[in-house]
Every structure is written in structure tokens, then in C-alpha cells.
Specification:
- The chain has 19 helices and 9 strands.
- The strands form 4 sheets. The chain has a 3-stranded antiparallel β-sheet, sandwiched between helices. Strands 3-4 form a two-stranded antiparallel ribbon. The protein has a two-stranded antiparallel sheet with strand order 5-6.
- A hairpin with a 2-residue loop joins strand 8 and strand 9.
- Helix 2 runs antiparallel to helix 3 and helix 6 packs across helix 7.
- It is extended and about 110 Å long.
- The relative contact order is 0.07.
Amino acid sequence: MGKRSYKRMKKGDRESRKLWAEGCREGILAPHVEPYADALARSCVTERDYIRWVQNEYHQLIPWELPDDEEPPLPLPEYDPKVIMMAEELTAEESEHKSKVVARKNKAIRRWLKYRVRKLNKRFTPTMDLEKNPYSALLAKLSGVKPPPIRARQGWQQFMHERYTEDIAPTVEEEWKTKQAAGVSSKEKNDAGFRAAVARKVYSDLPIEEQKRYEKLAKDDKKAAVAAYKKALEEGFSKTPEKRQLCLDKLAEFMTPILKGVKDMTGFNWILVGGGPSPALNGEISTVHLNMGYNISHTPLFWRQWDEERFDTQVIQFLREWLETCFTKEEKEAASLHLSNLDDTQYTIDPTGHVSEDNDGSDASDSGSSDSNSDSGSDANSDLPSSNEDTDTDSVESNRNSRTKAKKQNRAPKRTSSKKRKRSEGIDQPELPLPSKKKSKKSSKPMPTATTASALSRSHSAAPSAISATSRISEYERSRDINIERNHLMLAAIEEKQRQEMVNKGLDPVAMEIPGAKVTKKLVAKGGGKKKAAKVVVDQSMCRRSLRHQNKGGDGEGGSGAGVVLGVDGNVDMQNGERFCPPDVSD
């Protein structure tokens, strides 16, 4: 760095207090910039405690009555926080003056540190040059952005890229037939190297002007790819609901190697917990937790698997209650994916059963909002165990029946998409009947929201939850019940397939346990206990353990314990990209 072309003004000649810490004072404060930045990131209490430490060190080394333009005697003594400063004999006027000087200096020290922390953090903000940002490539992976090619194609590669089918493929076929007729050794193959050699030969026969044109096209493609990459990086920091949902979908894939590296370097088991308005749930509060590391029990378990009910109530439910105080109603609505972004969605039905046409793709009702006027201890939209122990038994049974009926109605989502096709063709659709007041039992059952296969793929299977005393079911609960039913059907299909394989092998499927699932029979009373029917219950814990050992890749019980469990509201456990069996839910 070259010398300044001007001589800096002396501190005593300046009219302002700018650069008051220049000199030995800066030597005292500069080492505290990064620790102060860390304290700021932690909490206001940590910041307050640390700034007091810095201020005490400054005042012990620099006398309060020394002007800023004068340097203290050097070398400065070592700071000892245990030293008790002797009380000065000051008059009332001098004591008041000292208090003002010290208070003003404490504010100046705080401003000095905060300014340098902002300058320090500015280097890593999205507003800087994305190519120089060390975090941009990492965040690009989370948003699904692929980096541009490192080098531009060569001329013959561009020619091969654009004209392979028309000009190169026939020549490759002819050359290979000629080679086969002359005799081909075992090492010679019609591979990429052979095709590249043919492409170079064809390219060399082109006119010079044509070759230069392909070279220019290759450079232009490289520039376009870099420009598209920069634009994608800028859009990657976008806060649109679509981008947020995309990042949530890629979160497990993105964080798995990071958590595994941190676990290997620290020896700790880690869990990443987050929550907020979920775009896929129309802005309702949801949580995500990722685990890295097992315990050392006979069957290694993740944190939630160790005690699911306790985890859901004492961790997730407590987190959800706090998250409800973190976001305004406007923020929840802004995070919602509008119905126009859901494939084949035609209309939305209010949970009470009233139909509301939704042609413009906007939400027809706010009944599924997280902002409820109810003061009940349990949340009707929550999939977690309810904290309300005073739930009436009759209300619970009626709600169970309505939930079962809602599941049966939600088994045919294709009917909605066919109605939309008819609507697009100009065919009038009959209006859905409104609930009748005379038939209260039938009309009180909630009608399902039109849900598509793509929307189902974004939903998650549900954890066991206590049923709320209210008969209103949110859109999230209906989607959850659909996934529960689908997973139960999938388990039944797997069980039937295993039974059939055992029959084909000449084994008795009744006398032997099915691998991965223990099947028992229970007598379930129906119709007030007058009739009894056998109900097959699948021991989900065995199936869960079986899948976990399969996913561990042969590590067995003494494996490394590395894997990620992704849970949304405690509903989904994923390890290495595989889905565990859903918990058993009694209807």
C-alpha cells in the first residue's frame, strides 16, 4: 500500500471526535471486534456483559481525565480484571464531571465496536459480489442452482453439441462399420473417445469461416451460462414462497454433510431445529428438525425415536408455542403458496362444509389460519398431543367418527382434476350441496379440500395426536389423514406381498412372523359393544427398526450412528433420504 499524499491532521487540531481511538487506544479495542461480533450474534444479554468487560479494561488502562489527543505513558500495564480500583477523593462537581466523561466514553466505545462489526459482516452479505462471497456457492446448492461450466467448449465440441444427430451420428455409424469389417480388437469400442475423434475429423473438413463461427458460439454460450448463474444466485436469496419451499425441500440433502462433518470433528450428537410459516401449509406454523447421531442402546435410536411423546410435547409443542409469538398475520399470509400454484386445484371448501368458489386461485377462507380466537389449551390444527386433559369423551368420539368419514371422502382426489378439465372446456358444473340442518349427523362431517397428487407429495405422514374437542378439522389435518391412510394401504400391500412370497415358497404365513412387521389381532368393539370384529394391528416399531438397519448400509447395531432424521411437526422421520414407517394411528 502506497504512502498517503497528505499528512493526517493531529488529533488535537480536529473539530470533531472522529478517529478518537487512534493510537494505543485502538490497540486496546481492536482485539475485541470479533469477540464482540460473536456476542452480538448470541443475545443482547451477552453483548451487554461483554461490552462492560471491554469498558472496564479501557478505563483501567486509560485515565478518565486524559484527553483523547494525548497518549498515556507507555508501555501500558497488563489488564487484570481482579484489581480493585482505589476510590478517588473528588468533590461533588468533579464526581459529576467524571460520571459524564465516563458515560460519554462508554457510548463511544460501543459505537466504535459496532461500526467495525458492521464493516466485518458486510463482507459476507448478499449485496457483495456473488463471485467473491464465500457463502454464495454453498447457498446456491440449497436453492438448487447449478454452477456454470468452468471452461467454454472448443469449436469441435460446439459443433458436436449442435450438429451431432444430423452430421456426426451418420459418419460415426459408417466409420464403425468400416472398422468392424476390417477387424476390431477387444480394446476398440464405439465409445465417447471414438465419437469425439470422428467429430474432430468432420469439424476439420469445415470451412475456416464456419469453424470460427462455432468457436464464437461456444464463447457466447459460456457467457450466457455465467450470466444465468449470477441471476440464479441473486434469485436464490429471494424470499418468495416458492423459493422458501424449494429450500425447505432441499434442507435435509443440504445439511446432512455439514452436520456429519461437525459431528465427526466435535464428537457431539447434533440436532437442527427450526420453524415458521410453511408455504406448503398456507402459512401455518410448522417445525423441522434434523438429527445427527444415535444413542448407544441395544437398538440405536435418534432423539425423537427415544421418546416420541415426550419429544413432541416438551420440545416441538413448546417450540410451536414460541413460534406463534414470532410472526405476524401478514407474515404468515405472505409465506403462503396461493392455490394458483397448486396443480389441478379447482376450489377450496371451508372446513365447516360451506362451499366457496375460487376461480382466481386465492384462498377462499381464513379458517385454516394459525391465528385462532380460541383460548383452548389445544390447537385444532396441531398434529401434536394435546395439553388439554379436560376433553369431553363424547366430543372425542364424535370427532373420531368425523375424521374417519373425512378420510373416506378424501380417497378420490382425481375427481377434482376431471371437474377442472370440464370447466376449462366450458361445461357448467353443478353446485355442491350445502349441509342440511335436518340431518345434523351427516351434514356435520367436514368436506375435504380438493387435493392433488402433487400436493400430496408435499404433505407428510402424521404422528399420533390427541383429538381436540372441536369438530372442525383444518386443511392440514385433512391432508395429514390422507397421508396416514395412504401409508397404511402401502404397509398392507407390502404385508400381502410378503405373505404371497411365503405361500409360493411353501411356508405358512400364519405360523411365522412377517419380516419387518409383527402382526397381531385385537378384538375391537363396534356398535356400542354389541358386535366384535377382529382388527389387524401392525407393530410399527419393528418395521421402523428394520428399515433403519437397512438404511445404515450394513453397519449393524455398532454402526457409526451417522444419519439425518427430518421431522416436520414431528410427523416425518427420514434417514439418508428414506422414509420410515408411519406411527400407528387408531381411528
